[in-house]
User: Which sequence fits this backbone?
């Protein structure tokens, strides 16, 4: 068998997309077969999250159970494997954990020696996969919903100067205040003629009470309570974006089209925001 790489999938949908993209680009870069472990990261997920990439046209195989050394990320065998690999030179490790203090070159410049390599990290930076962006966009194309209401909304959003606005506030450690959104809204109105705003939020009451859209048309998307993929698809249909400090809306903007579409994306400038803006967009940090 040729060399293989295994990505441990974990976290919410935005996290899963970053993990897949970084692992897929690493596999393409190093000429390895790509496998994903969709079980280990969700055995004891405190938020009740689960694997969602089975809805996407991904190019990855399921990791054979015979390769599993531990059932969970907290199992002693898993911890021992991780600790042992830390003692080895990085290019000789069969288990590579992301280090937040190292730049993306920790993965993009790596040519590991072991036949089988496991990746564990969130890899929340476009630099991990920008060299294979076209393939990633195709493989992570958001599936269209199958209901008439969302399809009608998607068609309408794609035909106008729509701007999606994402506010994430529930179970989140750092909350963006109304000032961030008002500066972003003002920036959009300076650059986009007749914008139409589309709001996605896990706290729609807060957005209704605190955000002033200056008389521009605005629509709140609240009907996809149990279908985050439908919301993500609708985000990709909008022409511009005001994203939250969230990987979910980052992907809604990045998957919304190729960078040469000259869209505008507005992103938080905050120490807790570790994801870099998508390259090629007109990015205005506030």
Assistant:
């Amino acid at each position: 068998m040729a060399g293989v790489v295994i990505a441990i999938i974990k976290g919410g949908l935005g996290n899963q997309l970053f993990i897949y993209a970084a692992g897929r680009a690493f596999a393409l870069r190093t000429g390895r077969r790509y496998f994903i472990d969709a079980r280990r990261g969700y055995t004891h997920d405190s938020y009740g999250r689960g694997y969602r990439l089975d809805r996407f046209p991904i190019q990855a195989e399921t990791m054979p159970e015979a390769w599993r050394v531990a059932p969970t990320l907290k199992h002693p065998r898993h911890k021992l494997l991780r600790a042992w690999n830390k003692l080895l030179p990085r290019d000789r490790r069969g288990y590579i954990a992301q280090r937040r203090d190292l730049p993306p070159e920790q993965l993009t410049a790596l040519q590991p020696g072991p036949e089988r390599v496991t990746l564990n990290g969130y890899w929340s930076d476009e630099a991990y996969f920008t060299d294979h962006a076209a393939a990633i966009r195709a493989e992570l194309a958001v599936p269209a919903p199958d209901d008439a209401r969302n399809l009608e909304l998607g068609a309408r959003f794609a035909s106008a100067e729509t701007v999606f606005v994402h506010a994430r506030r529930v179970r989140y450690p750092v909350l963006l205040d109304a000032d961030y959104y008002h500066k972003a809204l003002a920036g959009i109105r300076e650059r986009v003629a007749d914008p139409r705003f589309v709001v996605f939020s896990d706290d729609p009451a807060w957005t209704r009470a605190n955000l002033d859209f200056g008389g521009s048309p605005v629509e709140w998307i609240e009907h996809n309570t149990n279908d985050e993929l439908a919301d993500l698809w609708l985000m990709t249909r909008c022409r511009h974006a005001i994203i939250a400090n969230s990987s979910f809306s980052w992907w809604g903007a990045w998957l919304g089209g190729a960078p040469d579409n000259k869209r505008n994306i507005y992103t938080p400038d905050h120490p807790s925001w570790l994801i870099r803006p998508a390259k090629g967009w007109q990015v205005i940090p506030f």
